[in-house]
Each structure stands twice: as structure tokens, then as C-alpha cells.
Amino acid sequence: VDCSFSRGVCDWKQEADDDFDWNPADRDRGDGYYMAVPAFVGHKKDMGRLKLLLTELKPKSSYCLIFSYRLAGDRVGKLRVFLANKKTAPVWEQNNGNDERWRTGKIEIFQGAETTNSVTFESERGKGKTGEIGVDNVVLISGLCPED
């Protein structure tokens, strides 16, 4: 499953009961866009959630979720990833990003009898006033995550 935002093939949903929405942002090189939350949106500790609905994941299998992310700006906030069947705790979290670089996140998804039917990217507003939290190139592959 390849869910980059330029193609629009995946089922992305803005969550209705959060504080703000993620919005498309143009890539610097002009090759499509990514989803972003600017640092000045909302108030400290406000949350914005973007959910990817997953269908047809096979039970008792392994998957690897790979995505590009960046936390650009001083004290911009936190980016967390939640799986639908593990609602309480994030399976991935990042809160430091003093440069503008894009990095790669990887999450192993092990399907038991209950299958994961969604992945949620949550951004939490920090104290900073400049920068953004961005997500792009979300890919789900079958099997374990490859080594770097």
C-alpha cells in the first residue's frame, strides 16, 4: 500500500473530535505535496489527528509501516503514531527536530486474531511559533521492516 498524498489513492480521514486539521503543503521541489501542521495553529497541547483506514490486512501476518516525517522548528511539538487496536499508547513518538530534514520512521505491525484497521498520525502543538510537523510517503509493506 503506497499512500503518498500526491496520488490520493488511500483512504485518509481528518478526525472530527480533535482541535485542528492537517493540511496539504507543497514540496519545495514542486513534486507533489505532503500533509503538515504549522507550528502556529491552535494552542499548546492541542491535537490534530489524521487517520489512514486500512482494509484487507491479513490476520496473523506482519507488516511494516514506513513513512517520512519532519519536526521543523524549535519546540514545535510532538508527532505520535497510534494503531487502532492499541488505542491507549502510541506505538511511535518523536518530539525533537531542530533542523528542517526529513527522516524515516518505521513501525512493525503484528496482526493477531484482531487486525489493525487504521493508523493515526497525531500532532501535538508545542510552545514554538515557527516551523511545522509534516508527514509524507506513507508505505505499508508485507513482512518485517528492512534494516537500514
From TrEMBL:
Q: Which SMART domains match?
A: MAM
What Gene3D superfamilies does the database record attribute to this sequence?
A: 2.60.120.200
Please give the GO cellular component terms listed in this UniProt entry: membrane
Superkingdom of source: Eukaryota
All copies of domain MAM, residue ranges:
1-147
Q: Name one Pfam family in it.
A: MAM
PANTHER family, per database record: APICAL ENDOSOMAL GLYCOPROTEIN PRECURSOR, MAM DOMAIN-CONTAINING PROTEIN
Which protein are we looking at?
Answer: EGFL6 protein
Naturally occurring in which organism (per UniProt):
Oreotrochilus melanogaster
